[in-house]
Amino acid sequence: MNKTHKYSWLTFIPAGIACFYFYLHTCPYHLLHKEQTTLFVYASDVLYSYLNKPAVLSCLTGDYLTQFFRTPITASILMGGIMLVLGLICYAVFRKWTNGWLAIIPAITIMSWEVMRSCGLLYPLSSTISLIGGGGLFLIYDPIKNRYLRIGTVFFGIVLGYWLFGYGVFIFLLFVLISSLIHKRNRLWSCLAATMTIVLPGICSKSYLLTYSQACQYPATSWWGTPNPLYERLIGLDIEAEAGHWDKVRELSFPEEHISACSYYYNLANAVENKLPDRLIDYYQPGAEGLFIPISSSSSYLSSLYANEVWFHLGDMTMAEHATILGMIFSPNHTGSRMVKRLAEINLINRDEEVAMKYLRILSKTKFYSQWAKDRIPGKESDSVKRWLKEKRAFIPKTDTIRTSTTDVVKSLRLLLASNPENEMAHDYLLCLHLLAKNLPAFIEDYPKQPGKAPKRLYAEALMIDLVRHHASGKEIQETIVDPTVVQDFKEYTRLHRQSKGDPQALTGKFGKTYWYYYHFAQNQ
Amino acid sequence: MLLVCTACTSHPKQVTEVSEPAPIYPDYTNVTIPYNIAPLNFLLRNEVSALQVTVSGQQESLTVHGSRKVCFPLRKWKNLLEAEKGQTLTVTITAKVEGKWLQYPTFTWKVVSEKLDSFLSYRLIEPGYEVWNTIQLCERNIETFEEKVIADNNLVDGNCMNCHIYGKQNGNLSLFHLRGKNGGTILNRNGVLRKLSLKNDQMVSGAVYGDFHPSGRYGVFSSNIIIPAYHAQNNKRLEVYDTVSDLVIADFDNNKMLISPQTARKEVFETFPTFSADGNWIYYCASPTVELPDSLHQLHYSLCRIAFDAEKGEWGNHIDTLWNAAEHHASVCFPKASPDGRYLLYSVADYGTFPIWHRETDLKLMDLQTGQIDSLPTVNSDRSDTYHSWSSNSRWFVFASKRGDGQYGKPYFAYISPDGTAGKPFVLPQKDPEHYDYTFKSYNIPELSSTPVPFNAFDICRIYQGHE
């Protein structure tokens, strides 16, 4: 055989590097999100729970490695490395049947397929590990020369393979069948092995409480995937918002694509910096859904995950907890570092220390959150955490009310303001909510009367409409609006509106980003 | 090998007695336990590096060692409890903390000779307010750590399942509701499963909360339109109320629903029905309707009863009020009669009909012979203590409590002596005492049974799909 075949495996190194760059530039946020929806807890009770389903080793390894997806670079390096291992395993298998350079083709194909699959938001790393495991089992089995030992190993390998690697056993079986066809040996036993492989998940499904199809494909969730730039962007918005990187959130919000989740995060980024009214009309607004994401039993887990952020920042911990728990319940693993951290924070703010301790204990048994948890143990908080708690507790409701729906946001916001009139963010959300719904009477009702103090531009524009409607006097307008340029602009807007007979094209250039334009022309979508 | 193992186990030296109690979790100090309970494994919540625990009785004793967790060997534990039935065990903990051996004050385990029913069923569900994703109904053998899943919603299209109850604490008579398109009430009678539709045109909804008649022929249920709502302050979280609720009896033999105008009044919310031990009465909770949710704090349920003639299958005509909510300015839920007919156990909250999220909810015990009400101070905690079920010998009951973390419900067992004295309750023991720390599931609707159910999750799957 040509000596160059010995070095053909080196082809996989640039392939692995290519995978690294692919993940880094195409879906880094997907990988970070996977870490946030996983929680690897170093506790015997949790580790034993992996035995409740097949693919024990795949799931343990997959979740263990996923905890390291903490930055785009480390996540991409790990994924590139894992795909490299997969490629090499497949190459080693195909090398048994063909020359080195030809073996590269199917191996790279499988590698590429798996890279695509892993772009799926719900696709777990454990599924890739299962493929590696199945291939690895074959590499252990194949060198066995003794016929009876080979036969016994096949059957043992099937049972062990299913227990350790789930559907990876089908990969093992596939390679065994190919091997037996190529070498024309043990074909009968191979067929029996195939039968056993097909039957085994059905037998095990009872103890694993899975349907037959679930048992056959566990832990895989899909057979194909492609990068989804939209999801990547939405997840990026969420991850950067959770980290408090508001400039990045605003950057990711563009270009505008009329997506309510983008509006939601854009608004949130501005609101935490007290700039919500200043920039509201600069961006696509889908009515109330640009401010609050409705959640119900039919919401996706991503919606529930997103929904908690605004409530957490506003100070309504019940709504924040509701959304967080829903996000956790509906997430792929029904847990996650992100949600558990948020639940701990919510309960610390609410002074419900016992339940906060439950979450902190869990986090203290993780590799990367134990210090975070330690800094928040009630009575032993770090100084920065104490300051943060003091700030957050200042905005929580001091009285109770009942909301019959999570969409009853006006009631929630009014309660927050009744408890804390200094809650600027709640104030802005309430007023902007009314304005986006074009509910001027409600806006006027909730707008705090401060004669002589210049309102924010957006509010001034809305107030102007109301004042003109009620034929307010010049003095009243002056006292309410204060800034004369608002009045002048309104006059100009009115003149142009009349002149163009209400043609939006005539107004969009100079007044497209005013509330007057929104009030007249925006449609609820 | 033995010498190596012995050398590895750290034994107490230069022990100092301390006065503060051992920080054990779960709290198993000074509890009353049945002789057939699984080992009360626990751990220490401090910087312990080695432990020695000795459990001493009149005749036997058991010593175990550990690093932080105390796990008693099952067979030795059972031998100990069997030998010490009716006696009190003394538990001595000696722990190595920061290099020093400390001996904590001893505490006791009172081992009563009355058995606790061997099987406990419950629903494992996240405290997810009004929604769910993965739900399992499980049955645990309380004498060991074996747990069997009797229904898993992964096998029934992800639908909700709830209210698994036994009849007369017997695994051969049970039911639960399975929601969804192919759902229904799954009735188990001696292993024969039937899927029933417990609804007719007169009912506002399908059957919800229910109980079996002692004969097993009937079941009494509420039918409710249930509305979830959300509090705003602190950890009050969820509120649930009914906009309509009535009572109905299902005749399982004749496949008909029996409704009485007395318990289906528009101006009254009737709910949480249960049969008396002899089956001649139905206890339930009733409240005049109020404007909801605005008047939620005025929603107070009284404890009532109405007669039932099992021979004729007829409701009585007269309603008695046993506990008047207006007088007590509180609200009753979940009345359950003891199998011997002596007591009625129920929970009381400040208002409303969903006490699990009411921190102030406590259990009360009414002596049906004398009318005396015991507030059960040794049983109740500062968190909600609610949904309960009696053991077949009327000496034990299980209830769901949110003590501890206030969010995740766990099943607690409490003993009632023949003279009506309640013992300190203890939580269902787990093989790994850290289990409750790491689970994200609540133990919901705990129910006791002396025998296991004769079906499994795949039987339920088959009946759900119509393959009976």
What does this protein structure show overall?
The complex is a heterodimer of chains A (525) and B (468). By secondary structure, chain A is an all-alpha fold. Chain A folds into three domains: 3-217, no CATH class; 229-393; 449-525, no CATH class. Chain A is built from 29 helices and no strands. The model of chain A has no long low-confidence stretch (mean pLDDT 92). With 468 residues, chain B is mostly beta strands. Chain B has helices at 2-8, 74-83, 325-328, 435-438, 457-465; strands at residues 16-17, 24-25, 31-34, 42-44, 48-56, 61-66, 69-70, 88-97, 100-103, 107-112, 119-125, 136-141, 147-152, 161-167, 170-178, 184-189, 192-196, 207-212, 218-230, 238-251, 256-258, 268-275, 281-288, 302-309, 314-323, 331-337, 343-349, 362-367, 373-374, 385-390, 396-401, 410-415, 426-427, 442-449. In chain B, strands 1, 3, 5, 6, 8, 9 and 10 form a seven-stranded mixed beta sheet that branches. In chain B, strands 13-12-11-34 form a four-stranded antiparallel beta sheet. In chain B, strands 14-15-16-17 form a four-stranded antiparallel beta sheet, with helices on one face. Chain B is globular, with a radius of gyration of 23 Å. Chain B starts with a helix and ends with a helix. In chain B, 49% of the residues are buried. The chains are: A mainly alpha (525), B mainly beta (468). The A-B interface holds A 41, 43-46, 48, 206, 209-211, 214, 296-297, 316, 318-319, 321-322, 325-326, 328-330, 334-335, 347, 350-352, 354-355, 357-358, 361-362, 365, 396-404, 406, 412, 415 and B 126-134, 136, 149, 152, 154-155, 227, 229-237, 239, 293, 296, 404-408, 432, 434-435, 437-440, 456-458.
